[in-house]
């Protein structure tokens, strides 16, 4: 499994690989302590609730594809704009299609690795 990102532009790829592995603990490592996950517009979660919401997406059993569009870094903070898609046949045999453009914030930790501070997958949704 890929190590945590050493550059902000690599955070989405690390996340996708870990998401697609189906290992919730591996995904959780891509987030800093106290990180926020926004599984739907206006629904910001932290802690165990954020982790559970991410696990629910993973539970669809369909891989995610990510395409970073913009990465703007200033010191130890970065804004990531990422197009993403979950598309395929779910564990229940039904077709699943979810997509969005994320507006995420990553932060470089004391160990030099970048992690999500805010993961907002539907960041440009109205």
Automatic annotation (TrEMBL):
Domain DUF4440: 17-115
Gene3D superfamilies reported in the protein's UniProt record: 3.10.450.50
SUPFAM superfamilies membership: NTF2-like
InterPro entries recorded: DUF4440 (IPR027843), NTF2-like_dom_sf (IPR032710)
Protein name as catalogued: DUF4440 domain-containing protein
């Amino acid at each position: 499994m890929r190590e945590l990102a050493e550059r902000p532009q690599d955070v989405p790829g690390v996340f996708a690989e870990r998401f697609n592995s189906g290992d919730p603990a591996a995904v959780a490592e891509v987030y800093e302590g106290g990180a926020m996950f926004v599984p739907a517009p206006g629904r910001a979660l932290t802690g165990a609730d954020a982790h559970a919401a991410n696990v629910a997406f993973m539970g669809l059993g369909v891989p995610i594809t990510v395409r970073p569009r913009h990465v703007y870094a200033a010191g130890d903070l970065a804004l990531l704009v990422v197009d993403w898609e979950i598309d395929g046949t779910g564990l229940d045999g039904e077709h699943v299609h979810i997509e969005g453009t994320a507006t995420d914030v990553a932060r470089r930790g004391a160990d030099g690795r970048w992690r999500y501070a805010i993961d907002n997958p539907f960041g440009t949704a109205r």
